[in-house]
């Protein structure tokens, strides 16, 4: 994780140094929230919640470098038969992202769609609780993965707006294969 953070900061500093010669950098702070539930019955359901904080550095009119931190938790509760013990699986993920954003509209437009791509450092931990039995944890997992997404910023004023996004990570899983983890988020954004 330290190498990932160091590489992101080096990239930011080099682009910032180049950018300062042309014009000042605008900074945008953001906070997003995501929540999802699926219920089959009272013994079988899952719930996911995530919170993301971000800082974007607008290097040119339509290009920004975004650094973000996401804390997410997923809870899956399952019970096949009434006589079975209830099984609860809790997965906690922390995602440190570094993405290049391309804004597809003018900075002063009300609707500003964007696309983004980059890298994410993903740290995961899973805890499994079985009713009337032991609780155990799987080995924590950590990986660097490509990330990408699309979104829409609705700018109400020059400094305040809301942001809707779809973000995905190509996450490595056991055995060397990969899966696409994704999130739909909504939040607010402020230009400094």
Describe this structure in words.
With 192 residues, this protein is mainly beta. It is built from one helix and nine strands, in the order αβββββββββ. The protein has one helix at 2-20; strands spanning 26-41, 44-58, 63-78, 87-103, 111-130, 135-137, 141-155, 160-172, 178-191. It has an eight-stranded antiparallel β-barrel. The longest helix is centred in the N-terminal third of the chain and has 19 residues, at 2-20. The chain starts with a helix and ends with a strand.
Q: Approximately how much beta-strand content do the residues carry?
A: over 45%
Question: What characterizes the major β-sheet?
Answer: 8 strands, antiparallel, barrel
Distance between the termini: 28 Å
Strand arrangement within the widest β-sheet reads: 1-2-3-4-5-7-8-9
- Overall radius of gyration: 20 Å
Shape: elongated
Question: How much helix, percentage-wise, in residues?
Answer: under 10%
Mean pLDDT level: 86
Number of helices: 1
Number of strands: 9
Order of helices and strands: HEEEEEEEEE
Structural class: mainly beta
Low-confidence stretches: 15-22
Keywords for this structure?
8-stranded antiparallel β-barrel; 192 residues; mainly beta; 1 helix; single chain; elongated
Question: What is the strand and helix layout of this fold?
Answer:
Layout: H1 2-20, E1 26-41, E2 44-58, E3 63-78, E4 87-103, E5 111-130, E6 135-137, E7 141-155, E8 160-172, E9 178-191
Antiparallel strand pairs: 1-2, 1-9, 2-3, 3-4, 4-5, 5-6, 5-7, 7-8, 8-9
């Amino acid at each position: 994780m330290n190498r990932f953070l160091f590489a992101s900061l080096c990239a930011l500093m080099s682009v910032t140094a180049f950018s300062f010669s042309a014009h000042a950098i605008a900074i945008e702070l953001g906070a997003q929230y995501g929540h999802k539930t699926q219920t089959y019955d009272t013994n079988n359901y899952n719930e996911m919640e995530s919170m993301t904080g971000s800082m974007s550095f607008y290097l040119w009119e339509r290009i920004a470098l975004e650094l973000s931190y996401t804390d997410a938790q997923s809870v899956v509760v399952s019970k096949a038969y009434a006589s079975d013990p209830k099984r609860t699986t809790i997965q906690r993920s922390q995602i440190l992202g570094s993405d290049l954003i391309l804004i597809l509209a003018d900075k002063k437009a009300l609707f500003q769609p964007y696309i983004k791509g980059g890298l994410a450092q993903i740290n995961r931990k899973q805890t499994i609780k079985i009713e009337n039995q032991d609780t155990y944890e799987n080995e924590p997992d950590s990986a660097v993965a490509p990330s990408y997404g699309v979104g829409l910023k609705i700018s109400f004023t020059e400094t305040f707006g809301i942001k809707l996004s779809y973000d995905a990570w190509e996450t490595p899983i056991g055995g060397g294969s990969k899966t696409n983890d994704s999130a739909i988020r909504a939040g607010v954004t402020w230009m400094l």
